[in-house]
Amino acid sequence: MVALQIHFFLIPSLLSTMGAAQYMMQDATLLRYIDQRFLSLERRLEKCNQDVLEYVDEFREFSRMVLSRLAGLNTDKAEVKREVENLLTRIEHAQRDIDYFRSVTDSNTCMEVHEDLLKQQLLEEAEEKKRLKVMLNASCDHVLAGIKSLKVVKKTGGKHGSWMKDPGKKHAKIYLLSGPVNNVILEFANIMTFMENNQTLKARRVPLPLPWEGTGHVIYQGFLFYHRHGSLNEIVKFNIQRRNVADQMLLPGAGRIPAYQLSPQTKIDLAVDEQGLWALHAEPETGGNIVITKINPVAMAVEHSWDTPCSSKDAEAAFMACNTLHVVYNSPSGGSSRIQCVYDVLDALNAYTNPGLHFPKRQGSHSTVHYNPKDKQLFAWGDGSQIIYKLHTKQKV
């Protein structure tokens, strides 16, 4: 029995070691390739410089000899004088050509090195994109084409809050987190229980040892992930069933300014899509543009970050769906919410603004808009109402 337990413990360790060894082999291969390329360049440059120097020395020696011979000629004769002048002109032109050739040789050398570095950069970017695709297990083949309809499920709570389902296959429970600062979760057996008039009496109250801040929390794989109140950028992982803090992490660069200008209570907005857990926030260094961070929910560690062109100004919320950020904008006084910036982390060159996706039949503002990858719906909190939006998607081109 002891041997069997040791065997099970060793398997993940061996797999981790093998994975690390594979990445080390790839890095070593890349370094060898770079070293060989630069060695080849250095040899070619050395030969080129040597050939130029030998040619210049040979020409100058020949020029001295010609000038010495011409000095001894009788320049009084008109024919000889014309020949001498012609030769002197040709020598002068040739000298200028050599000086020019030497200068452009240096420029071409630099250009060749820059081109090689550019090729190397493109190679590294291609390898990084390949790594990201493997990390994200990118299998999404559809994009958001529109928001078809809405359903106001309930109206409970104040202006700020969030409600959600765990997107796991067997999860039907509904969770309500009311207020921008609080430490109690309300858990309902299903959405029908939540919709009943006396729903708060049937809710299971789950107290948190550390309160939350903002409305950017998510529930994923049985854990609540949220921004800890009073901290700059601490994210807490809370086990709902065991009622204890499972882990914590700091999100670099986050927490100094609101993620969205029109929702200043939220500094860090967490999101879940088909690829797992994400964090959205804004930074002063990006001019207030939104930053996307992929988080490993098991290790509670940053996997990768992207600076986006999507501004936090006049933004009220955002959500991730199929590796793609969708930012919801509105007016400060509240109006028709609309998605005006879309950013695919695997196809950043095709980030675009003003796609013309409006939220239907509603005037007001959103405190949160979160995507549920299982139901392919948006769970939103708008002016105290809990809303579900159905989505219209289309195949990626």
From TrEMBL:
Source species, domain of life: Eukaryota
Paired cysteines (S-S): C140-C322
Task: Name a biological process GO annotation.
Answer: signal transduction
> Under the cellular component aspect of Gene Ontology, which terms does the record hold?
extracellular space
Start and end residues of each Olfactomedin-like domain: 139-395
Q: Which residues form the signal peptide?
A: 1-21
Keywords, sorted A to Z: Coiled coil, Disulfide bond, Secreted, Signal
Where does the chain cross the membrane?
none
Under the heading InterPro entries, the entry gives: Olfac-like_dom, Olfactomedin-like_domain
Please verify whether the record's keywords include Transport.
no
Q: What is its subcellular localisation?
A: Secreted
* Coiled coil region boundaries: 70-97
Which PANTHER family does UniProt cross-reference here?
A: OLFACTOMEDIN-LIKE PROTEIN 1, OLFACTOMEDIN-RELATED
Q: What is this protein called?
A: OLFL1 protein
Gene transcribed to yield this protein: Olfml1
